[in-house]
Amino acid sequence: MIGLTTGQLILITILSLLLAAAVFLAVRAFTEPHILKVTTRKMYPGAKVSGFQRQLPPPNPGKPGIRLFFFSDLHADICLISPERLIRSLKEANAASPVDAVVFGGDICNNYRVNENGLTYLKKISEACSELGIPFYGVTGNHDLGYDVSDGQAFFESIEDRQIIFTSHSTGRQVVLFGLDDSGRKHRVWYKVPVVPSDCASVLVIHNPDSILHFEENDHVDFMLSGHFHAGQIKMPFKLEFLVLRADKLPRQNVIEGVFEHDGTTLFISRGVGCNKLPLRLGAMPEVSVVEIYV
Length: 295
Description:
21% of the residues lie in helices and 21% in strands. It has helices spanning 6-31, 83-96, 116-132, 240-243, and strands at 37-43, 53-54, 66-71, 101-104, 136-138, 157-158, 163-167, 174-179, 201-205, 223-226, 258-262, 265-269, 287-293. The protein is of the alpha/beta class. The chain has a single domain (35-293), classed as 4-Layer Sandwich (Purple Acid Phosphatase, chain A, domain 2).
């Protein structure tokens, strides 16, 4: 470095650090889609708060009423998590404590016309569920408009406009699991929440979390499972990935992933498994979740 001024040395050092950071982030973005995080998400009855707040456990929560294995946003044409890896996670969760149901939150593929990967993937999940004696339920997402899942062609049992009854292991209370369709983004429709028995705990599965903003006053939704946001997929400063690239409303309220409570509903938003458009993730590792619901 003979002949360089102090200012030039400082500039070279700064540029070198920036280059090293860029290389690190690039490597990380290519690596993260291969790393599956298995999370345990505990959901308690939500408080009647008007805004959104992250849910904290109560002092004495007791035991969960039902346990669900939840995954969303497969996007199988750009999914770098193998079905074998997901199945291994399911078997480990079920061995630890029995799973009541496996639930899929929508978006089988980026392009439903190229659906073989997605259906092959879901078939393997379905076969594993049959082997374990666990029911496999699901709903569709905004990328799934070309699928008719009512006849089982996606290998899960659709719960769109259907109600499945469980019994809480801890309280004996009945729990209704049900789902809603996704209309897609171009001509967005927020479908009405069907009526469920008022004396039951209700668990709604719907792909887009923004649906919670369109509940009517008397809608009975105690718990809600969603995906869609991918936790941003590639996180940027100031949440630019949402402010510039997407029109979703909840991320503008810092409701992106995790467990929240709002107006009596407890909401879980999964980071999802696959990738949309690019095989990259940054600060948003793929996620499958053991969801323990306290009812």
